[in-house]
Design goal:
Layout: H1 3-10, H2 25-32, H3 36-44, E1 52-54, E2 57-59, H4 62-76, H5 81-88, H6 99-106, E3 117-120, H7 134-141, E4 146-150, E5 153-156, H8 159-170, H9 175-214, H10 218-221, H11 233-278
Antiparallel strand pairs: 1-2, 3-5, 4-5
Helix pairs in contact: 4-6, 9-11
């Protein structure tokens, strides 16, 4: 081997440079805030197509970026991976990106009917006779109705619930009881909300998107408005209008059913209490 070839062999090889619009997995992770490990896990789970290989380097493009941002946002909203995969699987080519519209709507205050209110953590639970313990403060600030915005400040996403809590405090209802009730309320409300989102909203958005693509909308040809972040503005308006009609129906159905169920549970509890008081041998038992 000549001396020139030997020197060339000893020089470190340059890593393959990605083309414009392509990212290494590290760059994709840094841009989206999703760990490299999770990027690869989503790919293995079939939520993302495999990257383009250039030598031993995996390169991801704008489609991977968009899907990863969508997966990230839906995960933050509590969607499970199998639900996200079901949502993306079978979607017409080019139409998957329109689901980012759904993520965008869900990650803002679209369904919120109140303006969030900021409050110091040190003031939370101040309406009870006894100061709140650290454990109680943690429960108040970690149940999903509060968003931390500083070391001693939170943003209350439902000020109305705090006003209800204050009235319960005036009735001498213990703080732990209020916290237990609030946890149950959130748990069941989240279950109902998830059912509406997965069974109604997502299903209807899928139908609207597929119809839009079949009619030759921009999603079918890959044409989008760059100024709008790559979204099809016409489809965005259709989806937003759909949500505007579905939102009061979802909220109203819960408001309509709860008083009836509450009355039934009250009657059942009173009947059980009366039976216990009378005893099994009482007349009519």
């Amino acid at each position: 081997m000549s001396e020139k070839k030997m020197r060339a062999a000893r020089l470190p090889r340059e890593a393959p440079s990605p083309e414009v619009g392509e990212f290494t997995v590290e760059a994709l992770s840094e841009r989206t805030g999703v760990s490299v490990r999770n990027v690869r896990a989503y790919q293995t789970a079939g939520l993302m197509p495999p990257p383009r290989l250039q030598g031993r380097t995996a390169l991801y493009n704008a489609e991977h970026l968009g899907k990863l941002e969508l997966i990230r946002d839906l995960r933050k909203q509590g969607f499970k991976l199998d639900t996200i995969k079901d949502m993306l699987t079978g979607t017409p080519d080019g139409a998957w990106s329109e689901y980012s519209l759904v993520s965008h709507l869900f990650s803002t205050t679209f369904f919120t009917v109140e303006k969030p209110l900021r409050k110091a953590l040190s003031e939370m639970a101040s309406h009870w006779a006894q100061p709140a313990t650290q454990q109680q403060k943690d429960r108040l600030s970690e149940n999903g109705l509060y968003r931390r915005v500083g070391p001693d400040e939170v943003e209350m996403l439902s000020p109305a619930l705090e006003r209800i809590g204050i009235q319960l405090a005036e009735l001498d209802v213990p703080l732990n009881t209020v916290l237990d009730l609030q946890d149950e309320l959130i748990r069941h409300s989240r279950s109902i909300a998830r059912a509406y989102v997965e069974q109604l909203f997502i299903a209807m958005v899928r139908t609207v998107t597929e119809n839009h693509v079949q009619r030759g909308g921009p999603a079918a040809s890959g044409e989008t408005n760059a100024a709008s972040g790559g979204f099809d503005l016409r489809l965005a308006e259709v989806i937003k209008g759909l949500f505007e009609r579905l939102r009061p129906l979802a909220i109203g159905s819960v408001s309509a059913a709860f008083p009836v169920v509450l009355q039934q549970e009250f009657d059942r509890a009173i009947q059980m209490q009366c039976e216990q008081t009378r005893g099994p041998d009482a007349p009519g038992s």
